[in-house]
Specification:
By secondary structure, the protein is an alpha/beta fold. The chain has two domains: about 10-130, FAD/NAD(P)-binding domain, CATH 3.50.50.60; about 130-165, no CATH class. It has five helices and twelve strands. The strands form four sheets. A five-stranded parallel beta sheet has the order 3-10-4-5-6. The chain has a three-stranded antiparallel beta sheet with strand order 7-8-9, with no helix packed on it. Helix 2 runs parallel beside helix 3. It is elongated. The mean pLDDT is about 95. The structure holds flavin-adenine dinucleotide. Flavin-adenine dinucleotide binds near residues 27, 130, 152, 160 and 162.
Length: about 170
C-alpha cells in the first residue's frame, strides 16, 4: 500500500471577533470555493501567499500582503523576483518583517518596525504553510506486507518531488 494523503493548510490559533473579517484559506480562494471581500490582507508571503495576492489584485481588490520575515524567504530567487514584480505592478501593499498580532473587528494589527500597524480588511487570507497528513501509515503498516508513504504526507515539498517519489516507489515495487 502506498500512502499519498498529502497535506492540509495550517490554521491560526487566533481569536476572530464577532463581526470581524472573514478568515479563509488561500487554497480555497485559489480553487474559487470561498467569497473574498474588497479589502484583503494575505498572511504569509511565500509561493502561495504571493500567488493568491497576485490573483486577488488582478480581480481589482485592495490587497495587503504581510510576512513575518522577508518576502519569499526560501523560495527560488527567479520565481520570487517574477512574483514580487507582479505584486508591485498590481499595487499590492507588501509588508515584510510584519508578523500578525491580532485580528480586530475592522482588520488586522501587525507589528511593524517597532510599532503596531492597523490594516483594514474584509477578508484575511491565510497562506501560512501546510502540514503532513500521515496517520494512515501508522494504522496500516502492520496490516499489509509492504507499506510506503510518498509526497507531502512525508515531508512538505512540491509536485515534482511527489511525482519523483511515486515513480521511485513504483519501480521498487
Ligand atoms: C495552493 C498551492 C499551490 C501549489 N503550487 C505548486 C506549484 O505551482 N508547483 C508545485 O510543484 N507544487 C505546488 N504546490 C505543492 C503541491 O501541490 C504538492 O507538493 C503536491 O500536490 C503533493 O502531492 P501529494 O500527492 O503528496 O499530495 P496531494 O496533491 O495533496 O494529494 C493528496 C490527496 O489525498 C487525498 N486524501 C487525503 N486523505 C485521504 C484518505 N484518507 N483517503 C483518500 N484520499 C485521501 C486528498 O484529498 C488529496 O487529494 C502547491 C500547493 C498548494 C497548497
Amino acid at each position: 500500500m502506498v500512502v499519498a494523503t498529502g497535506a492540509v493548510p495550517n490554521n491560526l490559533n487566533i481569536h476572530v471577533p464577532v463581526g470581524g473579517p472573514s478568515v479563509v484559506q488561500a487554497n480555497d480562494v485559489i480553487a474559487g470555493r470561498v467569497a473574498v471581500g474588497q479589502r484583503v490582507v494575505v498572511v504569509g508571503g511565500r509561493y502561495v501567499g504571493m500567488e493568491v495576492a497576485d490573483l486577488l489584485a488582478e480581480e481589482g481588490k485592495h490587497v495587503s500582503l504581510i510576512e513575518a520575515v522577508e518576502l519569499g524567504w526560501g523560495t527560488i530567487l527567479g520565481l520570487k523576483a517574477v512574483l514580487r514584480n507582479r505584486l508591485v505592478e498590481k499595487g499590492v501593499y507588501i509588508y515584510p518583517h510584519s508578523p500578525l498580532m491580532r485580528i480586530t473587528k475592522t482588520g488586522v494589527d501587525v507589528a511593524n518596525n517597532g510599532a503596531i500597524l492597523h490594516l483594514k480588511a474584509d477578508t484575511v487570507v491565510l497562506a501560512i504553510g501546510t502540514r503532513p497528513v500521515n496517520h494512515l501509515l501508522e494504522e496500516i503498516k502492520n496490516l499489509v506486507p509492504e507499506a510506503y508513504a510518498i509526497g507531502d504526507c512525508t515531508e512538505i515539498g512540491d509536485a515534482m518531488e511527489a511525482i519523483n517519489q511515486g515513480a521511485e516507489i513504483g519501480r521498487l515495487i
